[in-house]
Amino acid sequence: MSNEAHLIETQLSTREIFDGKILHVKLDTVRLPNGATASREIIRHVGAVCIIPLTADGQVLVERQFRYPMNEVITEIPAGKLDSPDEDPLAAARRELREETGVTADKWTCLGPFYPAAAYSDERIWMYLAEQLHFGQQELDEDEFLGVSTVPLQTLVRQVLAGEIPDAKTQTAVLRVWALRQP
Amino acid sequence: MSNEAHLIETQLSTREIFDGKILHVKLDTVRLPNGATASREIIRHVGAVCIIPLTADGQVLVERQFRYPMNEVITEIPAGKLDSPDEDPLAAARRELREETGVTADKWTCLGPFYPAAAYSDERIWMYLAEQLHFGQQELDEDEFLGVSTVPLQTLVRQVLAGEIPDAKTQTAVLRVWALRQP
Hints:
By secondary structure, chain A is α+β, with helices and mostly antiparallel strands. Chain A has helices at 89-101, 153-161, 168-180, and strands at 10-19, 24-31, 37-44, 48-53, 59-67, 72-76, 79-81, 103-114, 125-135, 146-152. Helices cover 19% and strands 43% of the residues of chain A.
């Protein structure tokens, strides 16, 4: 890209609003490209991973999980937070897949980063395709409740295109894996 | 789906942490399916829209925009917040497209809802495909800085699949429009 200095904002100050277990809320003041100042309400997040676990016969493991902010049970691919900002995303993906579904995988492909809400959050989700699966026992946290099932990738693609899968990372990961397999 | 009452959490209390211009942060206490209690850190958000503006010859209007939380200039499709929770998303999409790019469109197709961060935010983004475009003048807010250009849909698809477009809504909308046009 050409020089984009005319788009850049610079931090003048930062104030901590809330230091939670998941969300770290800051209220920053920035200098805009035109020299004016503005406030920025932002979330600092440790980062996360999500995984498309794909069987040899084209089935995807998905979860049904209650999402309190939406007050809905929704369909999602397995996902979870990093344990720390320094954790290797692939190690986190292996852990989350094993804990949530009991599955381990011999083949992992990174699908790149995903910024769910770049306007107000620094969360990065690393997306993975997991293949050559081995099925074992779930190891859910004691406050984690979810149901796991398998759905053909083609069915998920149809559901995404019909607007029936609202979860962002699931929409994207399903379409990416499908697109990568098109001739 | 079958009865999923065994997944549901119910609100016991809610406390306001921060009432900002964009982010409204709450710390709720919930009853888990097993009867235990847990805290939930959540963002209340007014909702948003995003738009794929597609020309007759297969070009997409995209923006280069600095995203302060990521400290990066990234490529995104046009998007913006609703003016109020009750605003018609299509009206918001027409407004945001006109203000950010100067474009109006005769044909609008809703691509359904998108939950960017259902684990901790109630934000819903309504996705639209805009076609039959007419080009006019940008009307940016005085604190809004972005560059608009056109990119072939096929190029965007390739960039998404290569992991070069980290923005969530842009990844998904590009792949959805592309998938809907496959034979």
